[in-house]
Amino acid sequence: MARVALVTGGTRGIGAAIAKRLKKDGYAAVVCDVVDEQLAQFKADTGIPAYKIDVSNYESVAEGVKKISEEVGPVDILVNNAGITRDARFVKMTREKNWDPVIAVNLTSAFNTCNVCLPGMTERKWGRIINISSMNGQRGQFGQTNYSATKAGIIGFSRSLAEEAARGGVTVNVICPGFILTEMTAAMPKEILDGEVKKIPMGRIGSPDDIAAGVAFLASEDAAWITGQTISINGGQLMP
Questions:
Q1: What φ, ψ does residue 44 adopt, rounded to 5°?
Q2: Which among 233, 174, 231 has a CA at the least distance from the CA of 200?
Q3: Which of 58, 114, 145, 210 is a good FRET partner for 197, with 20 to 30 A between their CA atoms?
């Protein structure tokens, strides 16, 4: 029976690429998101089961994972990819609009999903948790004190969880994407995109498939002795 891989925020961009790659590699890929139309379209386009789960809400995660376990199988591989931005200069931020939603979706969600999925992985003595952070969680970014705080938090969270999960046969690792060409970034002015390329030693903007390849490796048996690590996939733009 194929191992079940749950990708949060999996209907678009990096999440969609990850889910498709994991399916291609023989896993029983499953995605979750919150927008009905995107869930339905993604399922129709890919054949990958898609569930409506609000990862910022613990009860929604518990109910959704229970449903996935009943309909597909217990979650063996968890990819925490869901994330939002609410950018603003710090002096213009408010808790209600900018801070609380970003903390809830980007950071609290990792607690929710890991807290629900980890006990089963430990019981089965096998699991992979792969948390998607960001280059901006490593270096900071103007207008993103909220977002960068969550992505830096994911790194610390993952290192600590890796210490606890290792004896249960579960690895926990982080991937920090650099500048990736998605629907959102593709809409940026050409001069901004060209400017980003000049900062990248590899000479190109990354693709969602570049991140998906890293996830696929960390999910595999070849990565069985890798845990607590932060892997930067950014074309050399930041070398921490």
A1: -65, -40
A2: 233
A3: 145
Q: How many CB atoms sit inside 10 A of residue 36's CB? A: 10
The two tokens of residue 31 are: 């995605």
Q: Where are the domains of the chain?
A: 4-181+209-231
CATH class of 4-181+209-231: alpha beta
Q: Which of 40, 170, 56, 42 is nearest to 29 (CA)?
A: 42
**What local confidence, expressed as pLDDT, does residue 87 receive?**
94
CA distance 240 to 230: 10
Total-model pTM = 0.97
Mean pLDDT by 10-residue block, N- to C-terminus, for the chain (240 residues)? 97 98 98 97 98 98 98 98 96 97 98 98 98 96 96 98 98 98 81 91 97 98 98 95
Q: List the one residue out of 10, 207, 28 whose CA is nearest residue 18.
A: 10
**Residue 70 CB coordination number (10 Å):** 9
pLDDT at 239: 94
User: Of 27, 51, 58, 147, which one is the catalytic site residue?
Assistant: 147
